[in-house]
Amino acid sequence: MKALDELTFDNRFARLGDAFSTHVLPEPIAAPRLVVASPAAMALLDLDPAEAHTPVFAELFSGHKLWAEAEPRAMVYSGHQFGFYNPQLGDGRGLLLGEVYNEAGEHWDLHLKGAGQTPYSRMGDGRAVLRSSIREFLASEALHALNIPTTRALCVIGSDTPVWREKQERAAMLLRLAPSHVRFGHFEFFYYTKRPEQQKELGDHVLAMHFPHCLEQPEPYLAMFREIVERNAELIAKWQAYGFCHGVMNTDNMSILGITFDFGPFAFLDDFDAHFICNHSDDQGRYSFSNQVPIGQWNLSALAQALTPFISVEALRETLGLYLPLFQAHYLDLMRRRLGLTTAEDDDQKLLEHLLQLMQNSGVDYSLFFRRLGDESPERAIARLRDDFVDLKGFDAWGELYIARVAREGVADQEQRRKRMHAVNPLYILRNYLAQNAIDAAESGDYSEVRRLHAVLSNPFEEQPGMERYAERPPEWGKHLEISCSS
Ligand code: AMP
Ligand code: MG
Q1: Which of 53, 170, 319, 347 to pair with 232, CA 20 to 30 A apart?
Q2: pTM for the whole thing?
Q3: pLDDT at site 469
């Protein structure tokens, strides 16, 4: 276990130089205080969890203090936003403070979000509000606990610094951790500004740091692209399986590591709705829940375009063709597990689609359905879940098919079935209204609800005594919260 001043830095991205990022110092926020910290994320840096409660912790993650070895840099990138190319992006309110390596030899980027203006701020103030910082913190740590690849969040620091959004709010900073902050948009930037040499420098860096095994392949760039396709297909399969809606799948928010990146107006589905749009500003539904799958491919095509100087168009096309089948395979595998199935049958996809259509028609709670399906024997669970459906005949027909499908796997011990299903079907998810309650309390200075919710979500598969209310269906108001990009 380390103290804060014992972190070891090795700032590999900063060493690429000024073509890739700009040196900028964080602008401190006033009266910094700890809102919440993640002991699990601190452990990634070998940090003693007690360090979170030292005054220097809040100072370091609010821009008041800096390690001597830190080299804060704003990264430059561009990207496609809502389908249109925007040449002018980059870290407008976040800074890569440096890279730290832990005792296991892993490198972690320390990225401070809300650290003030940079050359890439455009018209923005360089700040993040408490509300959005809490949402990102809770979501990163909750996704991680669900085994969904994601950036991590070390802490949120609150302040007295006023920030103007639709109303006056308070600035906060979030310390984000990831093995890399390189986005699809990094490659797009050097491609569209026609700087092949620098693009190659970036590509070689990413290969050496994050895909070293690809260097042994005959075409390292192609091998790397293939892995990016594979990782993103798997990531989006997990989002779809767990009802996670990202909300702003612009190419500047897509990680080359295939991890969930840049949280804005995200949501977990409450009632199942394939067409759900979590981003209030997304009028066309480009990033609706079911559109995430084709958008994943669209984004990979945008990356492929940027990689044409290194890889033949033919090879890029062929590799892009892997995305959908890979997505399908991962998704079906996860959904079989969520349904408690241990074998594969040809009609499983149909069985699943049939269920989702029934859930859609009746507005059934997506997460609780699967949890309850494992609570009791298939027959009993189906009999109990029936009450949630409007189309009783339709559900009865599905229930018969499901019970017969389970029976074909042989008689299983119900206790084992329950354990197996509960290990993949969370009881607690980050519902929008739960985040909102925690934010409301935090905005009035009470951080206990954020901390409690974080603790509950860190262990989503285990029933936690006294925490029943976090596992309930949302109240009606909680289903209609309007979350926009403004954060
Ligand atoms: P996001 O919607 O958070 O993915 O951000 C899109 C772009 O806008 C990125 O280049 C951000 O750095 C920039 N940006 C977002 N909010 C702000 C802000 N308050 N101040 C400056 N830049 C911002
Ligand atoms: Mg972004």
Answers
A1: 347
A2: 0.98
A3: 97
